[in-house]
Amino acid sequence: MAKKFRQCLGIDIFNYTEPFKEQQKKWDAHNSAFRVVNLEKDEFTEKFQRIISFEVIEHFQNEDTVSKYFDILESGGLAAISVPNKWWIFETHGAHLPLLPWNRVPFFSWLPRPLHERWANARIYTKSRITRLLEKQGFEIITCEYVTAPMDVLKEGKLKRWLLKNIFNSNSTKIPFLATAIFVLAKKPSPKG
């Protein structure tokens, strides 16, 4: 995506600087930089026209940290955000479950929120929960969609071809349990006046 933008900054709370520098050369992404920042603890005042945050918010200790996205976005700027979907059949981030060594238990994510969050490795979201969270911070929701499972973990063969042709034949769906994630495009409104 770097070539589509004038300048890009990648932010993570872990130090991936060396692998990033290797990829930066490989991709010829000279307009890109990488910085280690903990949005929950560090002061960060730069402003951006676009924010891309895929599968991040669920890992914040406090989900209201998403307010930092609003603060660092320029007026009229856009934020593309994805979060794990509660209604997907499998728990995408795993859980610490008593007596079960396998942490991808089917339908675990469908438990009521207090039970799920007691054992899960990360929060999960419904469309209403993520849109309420973003609107509470001041964002205007442009679109909110269910994103289908990529099917990249399945081996090539008849089953994969059938699933891609008949079930997962689009990047989005209206059927919640066919979606691994929820994608939201949100805007920071320009000041009125």
Task: Sum up the structure in keywords.
193 residues; alpha/beta; Rossmann fold; two-stranded parallel ribbon; 5 helices; 22% helix
Chain-wise SSE layout:
Elements: E1 8-12, H1 17-27, E2 32-36, E3 48-54, H2 67-72, E4 73-84, H3 113-119, H4 127-136, E5 140-148, H5 158-166, E6 172-173, E7 179-187
Parallel strand pairs: 1-2, 3-4
Antiparallel strand pairs: 4-7, 5-6, 5-7
Question: What does this 3D model show about the protein?
Answer:
This protein is of the alpha/beta class and 193 residues long. It has two domains: 1-36, no CATH class; 48-187, Rossmann fold (3-Layer(aba) Sandwich). 22% of the residues lie in helices and 25% in strands. The chain has helices at 17-27, 67-72, 113-119, 127-136, 158-166, and strands at residues 8-12, 32-36, 48-54, 73-84, 140-148, 172-173, 179-187. The strands form two sheets. It has a five-stranded mixed sheet with strand order 3-4-7-5-6. Strand 3, helix 2 (67-72) and strand 4 form a beta-alpha-beta unit.
N-to-C series of helices and strands: EHEEHEHHEHEE
Please give the order of strands in the largest beta sheet: 3-4-7-5-6
CATH superfamily of the largest domain: Vaccinia Virus protein VP39
CATH topology of the largest domain: Rossmann fold
Strand count, sense and closure of the main sheet? Answer: 5 strands, mixed
Low-confidence stretches: none
Radius of gyration: 18 Å
CATH architecture of the largest domain: 3-Layer(aba) Sandwich
> What is the molecular shape?
globular
Helix content: 10-25%
